[in-house]
Design goal:
Layout: H1 8-41, E1 44-46, E2 49-51, H2 64-80, H3 92-115, H4 119-122, H5 126-150
Antiparallel strand pairs: 1-2
Length: 151
């Protein structure tokens, strides 16, 4: 087994992933909550028919006009919830998930000298992707806690 030593860069990359994961878990119920509320209160053109959309994963199947209205209603609810985005067309949950993905890419790059695994290798398979980050974050977590205790 190859010997390795944790670096500040590894600690920071792991800390960033943990923070991004926490933000996704914070934003997800808020965004999904207001999306469900909007879908329950409105009837949209769904696959060419006016009907109520039950599953938020089907919101992309709305007509363009209805989707614009839906985005407008989402922005009203987003603002009420106190969530900010750079662009009115951005979904705070998708932004948070993108940040989480970006931080994981950086962590993988930082850990490559230790693991020998490039991001593109681990990202090919969702099961491998989850397992890799579970292992890496599990490996680094004790050092992160120790890092916080020193400050």
């Amino acid at each position: 087994m190859k010997k390795w030593k944790i670096t500040e860069e590894m600690k920071q990359a792991a800390k960033n992933v943990f923070a991004a994961m926490a933000w996704v878990e914070t934003v997800k119920p808020i965004v999904n909550g207001y999306k469900k509320k909007i879908l329950n209160e409105n009837v949209f053109n769904f696959d060419g028919e006016k009907k109520r959309i039950i599953n938020i994963k089907n919101d992309y199947r709305m007509s363009n006009v209805d989707f614009d209205n839906y985005l407008h209603l989402c922005n009203i609810e987003r603002k009420k919830a106190g969530l900010t985005v750079e662009n009115e067309e951005f979904c705070p949950l998708l932004v948070a998930e993108k940040i989480e993905s970006d931080t994981k890419i950086i962590l993988c790059d930082v850990m490559e000298p230790v693991t020998g695994i490039k991001y593109w290798n681990v990202s090919k398979n969702f099961k491998s992707y989850r397992k890799y980050f579970d292992l890496i974050l599990g490996l680094l977590a004790p050092y992160i806690d120790q890092h916080y205790q020193k400050k």
